[in-house]
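BUG: 3D viewer hangs when loading the predicted structure for this chain

Environment: internal workstation, default settings.
Expected: structure renders.
Actual: progress bar stalls at 90%.

Input used:
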Amino acid sequence: METNGYRLLLPEGTLDYFLISDVKESSTEIVIYLEEKNEVPGEYSNMRVESRGFYDPVVVQDFPVRGKKLFLNIRRRRWIVKEDGHYVSRNWKLVAEGSRMTHEFASFLKELY
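Structure tokens produced before the viewer hung:
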């Protein structure tokens, strides 16, 4: 499925950190599936880390579009630090300070952290 046009429905700055992995559209709703990019967070760039999948997805309802409910199904990535085996994820508080995301979306992601 072509997902390029759906990027226009996302909060500003979302695609800086996420990829659209899928879109499901029915007569009543649109679900955009987002996966966090496999780009190691800056605060861990000097460590040996490896991507170890994703946390459970979180579904956020956004503003309706043309009478259809719009949902964002967000999968945040996690990495393991090779030296000590603990898991880390992107610090959304740091991202939101300098991001181009909408305030609402950045606040939502900070709450997940």
